[in-house]
Design brief:
Elements (H helix, E strand, L loop, with lengths): L1 E2 L6 E3 L4 E4 L5 E11 L5 E7 L4 E4 L2 E4 L4 E10 L5 E10 L4 E11 L4 E4 L3 E7 L4 E9 L10 E7 L3 E6 L4 E6 L6 E11 L3 E12 L2 E4 L2 E4 L4 E8 L8 E5 L4 E10 L2 E8 L3 H4 L5 E8 L2 E9 L1 H4 L2
Parallel strand pairs: 3-10, 12-18, 20-26
Antiparallel strand pairs: 1-2, 2-4, 4-8, 5-7, 5-9, 6-8, 9-10, 11-13, 13-16, 14-17, 15-16, 17-18, 19-21, 21-24, 22-25, 23-24, 25-26
Length: about 300
């Protein structure tokens, strides 16, 4: 107990109260004392900062020498949720705030998937890739239950199977020649009743990637593009490139066998102005593999 104001005022605790719930939707309850150490009755009112908090009693009068246990409860709805709540103690006819109770409410997770998402990263067209993951039981695992896959929903073909060595799972994306983002989720059932959803993400792209993919160009200035193979292998021979008129593409320095710098310059912007949003594409062909870069003329954009 600690006095929070001089003279006739209520005493209460000055340390934060930490409470933990076990199940979603549960109202976890606790108490804190308030005491009248003075010589006169003190009227009080309690005001929580959140509608998720119940307080009993909300108001009253505490006689000299008396102590009262205030009951409160905080509702938590989802696992992993944490709430910081305050309960203000107001005194007297003026309802002057004399102290504040600090409450930290938690609903710990019972399970966690590691990693928390299946990220295939960037995958070259026609390539497969696997990602291992497992379920961590943070509490007591129900006896006799086995974690299992309920469904795999994805815009690409992804298969999930058990890893016999680790007792976890292995997600495998099958070869696909369609460029674009990988989006979906894996639904797991753990402890026989709890469903977990694990996001799937990544991107299927050309075997050779360009950085940046979108190149901002000014007339007469030279910009640089780095070309690299996803698998780390050599780029090979640049057999051809396709660029609009007015765009000069020059071979820069070869950084390594798998990375090539390309220099780009606009000497005539008329081709850009005939295109939507002042954008054109440059395509590079390396011994059967290709990649492309979108170029945007920013001279006319800035002048608008």
């Amino acid at each position: 107990m600690s006095a929070t104001a001089g003279g006739e005022s209520l005493d209460t605790i000055d340390l934060p109260i930490v409470i933990k719930a076990k199940n979603p939707g549960e109202v976890v309850e606790s108490t804190f004392p308030i005491a009248n150490r003075g010589t006169k009755p003190i009227a009080f009112e309690l005001r929580p900062s959140c509608g998720c908090t119940e307080v009993r009693p909300m108001s009253g009068t505490l006689e000299p020498g008396s102590t009262l246990d205030v009951h409160f409860g905080v509702k938590l709805n989802v696992e992993g949720e944490e709430k910081n709540v305050t309960i203000a103690i107001l005194e007297g006819k003026e309802r002057k705030q004399t102290s504040t109770i600090q409450i930290h409410a938690q609903l710990p997770e019972s399970h966690k998937v590691a990693p928390d998402r299946i990220d295939f990263g960037m995958i070259g067209k026609g390539k497969a890739k696997t990602v291992a993951f497992h379920v961590e039981h943070l509490g007591h695992q129900a006896e006799g239950t086995v974690d299992r896959i309920v469904a795999v929903n994805c815009n690409r073909t992804v298969a999930v199977e058990r890893d016999a060595q680790t007792e976890g799972f292995i997600a495998r994306i099958e070869p696909d020649d369609r460029e674009g983002m990988i989006q979906g989720e894996i639904q797991l059932l753990v402890d026989g009743t709890k469903e977990l959803k694990v996001p799937i993400c990544g991107e299927i792209t050309d075997p050779i990637i360009a950085a940046p993919r979108m190149l901002d160009l000014r007339t007469g200035q030279v910009a640089h593009i780095m070309l690299k193979r996803l698998d780390g292998g050599p780029l090979g021979h640049l057999t051809s490139l396709e660029a609009p008129k007015g765009v000069e593409v020059m071979n820069g320095e070869r950084e390594t066998g798998s990375i090539q710098r390309i220099d780009v310059r606009i000497f005539d912007a008329s081709e850009f102005r005939n295109q939507k949003n002042n954008r054109v594409r440059i395509q590079f062909n390396f011994s059967g593999d290709q990649c492309s870069v979108e170029c945007r003329l920013i001279d006319s954009i800035e002048s608008r």
